[in-house]
Every structure is written in structure tokens, then in C-alpha cells.
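S1.2 Input.
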Amino acid sequence: MSKVHLVTFMLASAVFGSGSVFAAKISDVRGTVHNLSHPLNTIDYIPVGGSLPIRTVMATSTQPGFCVFCHTAHNSSPSTPPLWNKVFSVVAYTTYTSSSMDALSDQGITELAQPGDSSKMCLSCHDGTLAVGTVAVFNGRQNQLIELSGTTVEGAMPASASSIDGGATTGYTRRLGADLRNDHPISVNYTASLASRDGELRAVDSNQRSNFDSGATIGPRADLAKHKLPLYGVAGSAQIQCPTCHDPHIRDDNPAVGNQKFLRLNRFQEAQPAASFNEANDIICLACHEKGGDSWAYSAHANSLVGLQTYLAVPGETLREFPANLPVWKASCLNCHDTHTVEGARRLLREGTDSFSTANTPKAGGNPAIEETCFQCHTTTVSSVITYSNLNYSVPDIRSDYDLAIHMPIKSSDQAANSEVHDIGGNFDDAVLLEGGVNCTAWDNKCGADFVEKRLNLGAGNLFNRHAECSDCHNPHRVVKFRDFRGNPPGILMGTPDAAGTHGHDEFGNIHTNIASGVLRGITGVEPMYSGASFQEIPAGFTVKRGDPGSSTGESVDDPYVTREYQVCLKCHSNYGYADNNVYPIGNRPSLTNSGGGTLSGINELTQFTNQAKEFQAPWTHKGEPLTTSDSGASAAYSANNHRSWHPVMDNTGRTPAIRGGLDPNTFLSPWNKVGAVGTQTMYCSDCHGSATGLTTVEPAGGDNGNSWGPHGSSNNFLLKGVWDQNVGSASADALCFRCHDYNQYANPDTLPTDKKISGFSGLASAAAPDNDTNLHVQHASKMKLTVLPMRCSQCHEAVSHGWKNKALLVNLNDVGPEAGQSVGTIILAAALPYSMQPYYLSAWLKVNSFAKSGEWKKADCSGCH
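S1.3 Output.
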């Protein structure tokens, strides 16, 4: 299978170029908004490069200069080295925290220290507790108030304003307040051990310089990777503080680069990122956060060949203070994060709360809502903050799927107590659990980088925690616009209209696969481990798949990273994500509930989820058509010509047309009917689960360019692309099955004899039954048309068609067992027909007297219906 790998991208990047506009940092505090002097003092000032900013806060008198608001030559604060002229607030600050913040575990603390003196210099204006005009010394007098006029700028309070308790709740006014939980963490000891534990932090260098924080003798101050980002320390520590990133004296000489927020390095990405940091090209965030090097450079949110969409002036650029027509790839980290973000958001996520906002105003407070960050762009063109420079690069509208009647419970209102329980990283050890997991206490665990989450959050041990988040299935730092998570097929390059992050049907030749697509690259998943082949056994344990594959071309299920879509799904839809005592019909598995957008309990008589790792198992001993099996989970009396069956999600079935009695591949629809595909191909969970599609296809309308392929929401129960509901009739042309199976060859009662193809269910012709060598599915449909009993798939096939104990997903009412809470070999009497028992029997009629080889069925093999 040919792939296009990293080298292809690097060459393409060189060809396309970046179109960057570079700027230089110049030291010129007089030409910044930190110049609070009266306008007359700058009337003759002509800046070198750029232009003076629009200042809305300034002194009412011409007397003070522009240095006095921060510094004084005499009688400065004795504890603060740079002649500081302000009094620090005595307020107790609430510091940043998150479950994935390794600094806490690394330092053995429960919360970060209070801001250092170097940060308090900034906070003396920006926390809003003191009027900006308040200085320690002015004209030889102490504790003076310089009168200011105007409104706030970047959090500065005018002199006439009273002190406040906290910052503004919005992420755009930058009045930080004393609650710093929604601001980039400071007072973090940046150490080699922290970098190892995190896995995506650059190491500090050995450059030794004096520190600026008080309370210690002159000691070491390491610079981050020699990129002009100083670390500040007390008693020899090296900490991130506000001036690590900001220098209040500098500005950029090119206004085209937009508001640079006094950052020491670029606020925006200026050229295609690479594994190593480039000071001239890269956004400042990458000086510390390497994000896997090539993994981030390749990602759809950072790649200059993919992230071509540009921000709209309203609501995109204006509120974010972005320059005009900024493309997504240049916004880089700032697409999703804001270093001083909306109150209530996690991990500095931009707009990451459930509070309401209009197109012209940012959010203000609310409960954490990760999905709202994604919905900024992954929504309708009317609601999006971005436009498209080329419609061939459309962003999928995901939000509309979550507004459908049935959807994964992702909104705060969908979750217990409006609480967003799912949360990556942390200091926990799931490896001690019976089914297995990850040890996130190790010094190099990298759990936050890999989006590893404790099983308790998924629901194991607490079913109230069961819901969905975007980051359960997608790692936004690693997703790529590849059909295959490793690369696109020949002729489809990243950055071309045919490239997409979702799987296609035909790109890899005739054989449809279950290889994970680009949007699943680098997320976590699980691979089940089985102790036996019986349908009645649940997995004994799981191997957690995690990490980014890098340049590896491995696609084995044994590789350490996710290679299959089902590995992501089974993280929640198996006994990895919840306890399962394997008791039926009602066990301790999660209940179906319509709260949170789920399917209403009782639809198809179901009240509980099933364990899909149990159902989809594809034991190699049951592939093809073995003559006898003793471990299918069926009664020993039905071991002859019988075996487990499954939809080929985890592996192929091995049941080729020849093995299936001369099956005609065209009883399947495209692409399942390709030459050599039947019995050898695999499929995705999302071939059946997702927003509703048109008849005869599982592809979204218009393909996957700008359309959602994944199982986010649907107008059908169980998040299905078609109907599977006994009240509608599961053998109607709109039924889910007939997105892949040809309705005319399986269930259309009006199909003519000349149209009949061999469907795998056929028999040996005889004088008494000359039609037995034709399609017996259609024959049954035709005969049942003459009765009052409409044909439904579940009359003969089990109702949850993931996998089963009998061949061809056939029910057998002569052999009902533990899957229905019965003893092995229980016979359902004729008087009880049709038989329903959740989850697998729904208005079932079929009694199999003996299983026949495909192509050799005869009337005597079955009863119940006859």
C-alpha cells in the first residue's frame, strides 16, 4: 500500500512557500500603549518603523513623563530591582490548574506558588485591584495618584475606577483580576524532569544569567532553548513568569503583523513550522511547547498547505485582535487557545464555555465546554468565524450534527450536573485495574500529550461520567488531512482538493479497509485481549494504544499507537469504559437514556448498551466456513457447519463468494462489491453510525468535503445512517442494512425471478424445489408479501448486528442461551413466537434444525416460520 509521507509534505511546502510578512522587535516604549503620558509629550515624536498606537488612557496633565508610571530614579521599592514605582497588591491570587498540568506532580505540590515579583509588576496594573495612576513616588511625594482619562486598555483601570475583586469574565478585555485560573500558568518551575514528564516541552539550556525576582541572592536564570525567553527564579529556581513571554518596552515595526501583545517572539506563525524551533518563523508558544515536532507541523491546524481558511473581520479578527485576512495556519495555537481566556474555560481554550455570546461579543463565564472551541470553525458558514479562500478546502460542519435529535452527549446540558467530567492527563495508575490501563504516575508518562484519560472519567466505576468530548476521539495537535492516518494514496497530496481527513471508499484500490483515517491520528484507543473465542465471553483485558506514529508506516493492530477506528470507539463501548458483569438481559452495563441526546430506552426493546468488544471479536478459527466449531458460544448440538459471525469491523470474515456457495458480489452495493473484496475487506464503525445518508450509500451527501462522516449525531436512533426500528419496518428500502446490501436482492418482494442473484442464502435445486439455487432472501420476501406478516431482517437475524454466536448472524430459537438470560440450548416453544428478548432477539421466528453449508440450505433445515 503506497503512502505519501513526511518528505512529500516538506517538498510541497518548499514549492508552495509561506507568503510570510516579517517584522522586527524594536525597543520603543514611547511608541506603545504603555506610554501613559499626556499627548503633548509625544507631539513631536516620530517613531522609526510603524506608527503610534491609539491610546485611550493617558495622563490629564502634561507634567509626568512616560517612565514614571513604572519606574523612579529615587525612593523605589527596595525589594524590586528595576527601580519599581508601584505598590504590589496584597490580594491572594488564585492560580492556574488542570489535570494535565504535570508541574504539580513534578514538584509534589497541590497548587502553584503565588506570582513572583516579576509577575506582580505586571499585575500591579493588570489585576484591576489598584488604579493605574497610583505610583509609589511622584515629585518627591509617596503614594501619589496621577490623574488619568479614558477607558481601559488591555486591562488597565483608569485612575477614577475603584478596586475590583476579580477580572473580567471575557477572554478579550484582558483585565486579569486576582483569579488567574483562566490565564497562562506562572510560577512554574521549568525543569528537565518536567519536560520529560510532559513529553512535549523543550528542554532548557544551560545559559546562566542573573534573575530579577526578589527574595534571593543573584542566581541562575536559564533561557528557554536560547530563544530570548528568560526564566525567573527564587533561591536558584527557574520559573515561568509574566516577563518570560512579555517585554513591556517593545513593539513591532510592521503594523501588518497585528497586535503583538508585547511578546518577545512572534504572536503568529510566519512560515511553515518544523520540528526544530525557528525564532523568525514560529509562534512564541512553540519555543516551549514543541507539540511533537513534525506531528504539529503536519497537523491540519498548522499546515500551510491545509489551513488556508481566513478569519472573518466579524466576529473573527476584531474580537481576537488578529490582522486582516489571517489564515488558520498562521493563527496556529491561537485558533484554539488564548493565553488569557474566557473565565471557566479549561486549558486556556478560546471560547471554551457554554455561555451565550453574539457574533460581535465574546463569551463571558460559564461552564467548561471543550466543544465550543471546536464549534468556532466546525459549524455552518453562517456561524463560523472563518471564511474559505478555496471551497475545495471546506471545514466539516460538526456542530449541526450535535443539534440533531440523536447525538452523542457532548454539551454541558447533556451531562450530569452540567459538569464536563472528561479530562485528559492526571496523576493516576489504571494499570492496576483488572482489564488494564495506563500508569500516569511515571516520571516520563506523557499522558497529557497523548490525551490519555482515566477510566473512571469514561464511566468505569461511575456511569454518570459517560458522555463524549471532541478530544475523546481527536487530538487536534496531530490530526492530518490524510485518508489514511499515515498518508494519502498516490496522486492525492495534502493540500489538494481530494485530500481529506476522513476515510474514503475507493482511494486504496478495490479493497475497503478499517485503517484509521487522518482525523484519528495520535489519539488514544484500546485493543481488546481475548481468552477465548466464545461469543459468551467478554474481553479479559485491553492494551491501550497511544502516541503519534511519526514517520512509521506500521499498520498492525499490535503497533503501540492507534491504527484502527474501532480502537477509539471501544474505549467507551466496551468493558474498558464501564463495568460489565456479562449478565443478560439486564446487567450492570450503562442504560439507554434519552437525556443528553441519546436513544430513548425501549426502542427496539433495548434498555442497555451492549459490549461491542465482545460482539465484534473476529477469531481466526471462525473465518471462512469451518465445518465444525466447539467454541462459538452456541450449544454443542449446533456446532456442525456453524461458527461465529461478525461485521468485518475488527477483521475480515474470510467468507469469500466461493465459500458462500457462489455468492454474486453484486448483491452488495459499491464499494463492497469490488472484485476480490467480499470476505477479505474490512469496514468502519462510522460506515453505519453517523448522520443519515441517502439510500444505497453510507457516504455523506456531497462526499466528505465539508460534510461530517463521524458518529456525532443523526436523525435516526442509535446514531445510525439509516432506519433500524421495528415500528418502521427493518426490511424497508430506507433501512440501514440496505446502505450496503442491495435491497432488491435481499428484501424487495417485487424483484422479478430474472433479477435474482445468489445472495449466499441458497439451496440445492431439485424437481420439487427448482428455485433453491436462486436467491432465497428474495424468495422469502415474495412469499411473505402474500401474508399479513411483513418481512423484517430481525425475524431471522439477531437485532444488534455487530457479531454473533451463529453463522450469518442467524438467530436460532432452538438454542437460546445466556445472551438472553437462558440456559444453554433453551428452546422457545411455538406458542411463544415471535420471540423478543433484549438485546439480540427482536420479533424473532427462526428455528434452525441444523445449520447447512452456504448454498446447500433446504426447507427441512429451518422451522418456526414454516
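S1.4 Remarks. Residues 1-20, 153-167, 206-212, 214-222 have pLDDT under 50 and may be disordered.
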